[in-house]
Amino acid sequence: IWRVWGIYMILTANLSKEQELKEVCPSCDTTQLCNCSSMGLDFIPPGITGQITVLNLAHNRIKHIRSQDLQQAVNLRALLLQSNKISSIDEDSFHSLGKLELLDLSNNSLAHLSPSWFGYLYSLQHLHLQGNSYRELGESSPFSSLRNLSFLHLGNPWFSTIRQRNFEGIELLDKLWIDGSSLSQYEPGSLKPIKKINHMIMNLKNTNVFSAIVRDLLHSVTWLEVREIKLEIEKKSLVQNSTLPFSIRKLTFKDASFTDQYISRIIVLLKEITTLQELEAIDCVLEGKGAWDITEITTSGESFVEKISIINIMIQNFHLFYDLEGIESQINKLNSLTIASSKVFMVPCKLAKHFSSLLYLDFHDNLLVNNRLNETICEDAWPSLQTLNLSQNSLKSLKETANSVSRLLKLINLDISQNNFGEIPDVCEWPKNLKYLNLSSTQIPKLTTCIPPTLEVLDVSANNLKEFGLQLPFLKELYLTKNQLKTLPAAAPIPNLVAMSIRRNKLNSFSREEFEGAQVGAVHLSLMECHRSLVVSLICILVFLVILVLVAVGYKYHAVWYLRMTWAWLQVKRKPKRAPTKDICYDAFVSYSENDSDWVENIMVRELEQACPPFRLCLHKRDFVPGKWIVDNIIDSIEKSHKTLFVLSEHFVQSEWCKYELDFSHFRLFDENNDAAILVLLEPIQSKAIPKRFCKLRKIMNTKTYLEWPLEEEQQQMFWENLKGALKS
What we know:
Structural class: alpha/beta
Low-confidence stretches: 7-15
Distance between the termini: 74 Å
Strand content: 15-25%
CATH architecture of the domain at 586-728: 3-Layer(aba) Sandwich
CATH class of the domain at 586-728: Alpha Beta
Shape: extended
Subcellular location: Membrane
Radius of gyration: 40 Å
Organism: Pterocles burchelli
Transmembrane segments: 534-555
CATH topology of the domain at 586-728: Rossmann fold
GO molecular function, one term: triacyl lipopeptide binding
CATH superfamily of the domain at 586-728: Toll/interleukin-1 receptor homology (TIR) domain
Family: Belongs to the Toll-like receptor family.
């Protein structure tokens, strides 16, 4: 009665806690996702059970996490505790969260990080610790147990020190983000334990710390992103005594500040990182006007960078910016250049001619006008260019724009959208290979033969078009969204059209001419085109049936057995023919069927192992090494035995054990043509009853003498004498 009463009280207590949780967080009642965010909670509510996989407690007033708060949440995958007031966590608060994959403790009041918090979070992949008040990570690593960690975000405005052992235990990260605006002490080698980082973001203001971190990351990080740094002159090499190869492929500066002097120096220093292929500068400020040390830059050799992106760079006196004469040797290998939202109004013709390898050029959202475009795209400029984006500039004349880009003989893709052309001429000159043209949002009222007939893709969305009557024989995609069209384009002039977007127009009727083209009855489509899903399904079913037949045939003719035996035979062939005498541990290895184990273990083993002197027998049931593969056990046992004794019976040749595992030993014993095999016939058996794949066993029974177990007691003594003699030979 007392036991029943105790169980009843425990169940009642648990039910009351669950009820309390449901009252605080109603969403916990119906799903595995428990949303308790922004509830004004001062503590983690009771009643959190193993059914919950996602627990959101963000944006509350929780100050302390107790040991028992999450003790029952053994199936929790995500725990969101950001934006609370957490200042203390019991050492074992997270010990039951072995399945947790995401933990967010950001924007709290943690003054230190304890390794014991994370000691049992074996499945953790994402950890957010930024926005707390800790100044360092301690003397050792708080993360040494997090072997599956892939994302780590840490740091805060007061975070000042990184020590050598702080990242021990972490070997691979997809993303590492360190908010270190106050980081002033970095012990060299601190980040070296991490073998690979795909993307690292650092908020830094200290140039010396930046240089030290770069040296540690040369062999581990692929993409390094540095934010908020005010770069100053750096005399030391970024690579110093580091050995090749490096791993850095991409370097991004965001919200950074440069001077002309530092630009010159960083260009020289970055050349030492020979693997660097891509440079980005986003939302940066250049405190200068391009007065770079061209001599230092050119004498330091060629650049290995292939892609440069400059987006929204602020140059206060941009109209005074130098023409960068002399930097031509640094741009020969560039194949992609983006300078967007940066008030570019011209590129000097002399400089443009040296972009000999450039394939992609993006000048969108700048201040290019037609007369400056004529200088920017002068004769022989950008000789390899295939893609050009001039959208969102101040181009006014479509005819002049076309004339300028016609000098780009290899141009294929052109985007001149969001320029206010207003008018369109009847004739324009374009590059001969142009296939993609974007004229959307350019205020053109109609379309004329100015549009090149070579196009495969044409976008004239968001204009004032009232009709479309162009002859474009190669066109595959046509975008006419947001115009004033009242009828569809005729089909005949665009016979190869595959896709057309015509949303937000004024269509109200369709005519027969609009659908002119091949008649439906005259079109002969393949079965695949008409019934793709059906054909794919039939192919999958056919493949499945073929696999099923192959499995059935293989099973019937013992294909798996032959493969396994061949592998075992190859293993045996690589080993010495016989083990050295000193390695022989047994007089005989006994091969027998489990159905004959009573005779083997109770009669034969007792007779032989209790003889004087006793024989040492190896039995699989007694002497095989536990946990070792069965074939390896058999190989080792045979090689460590002087003889191999086969106890033959009807059970022996029919049992799966002997058939698929044990009798691989034929490969070794019978290939050697020696007397290591002793055959004991426990009951009369015909050689034809032995499976055909044991051809050598069938042959040896026909050619070699074997011992036959007599049923008469008076003859059994002779049997034992003969067997002992065979074992001693």
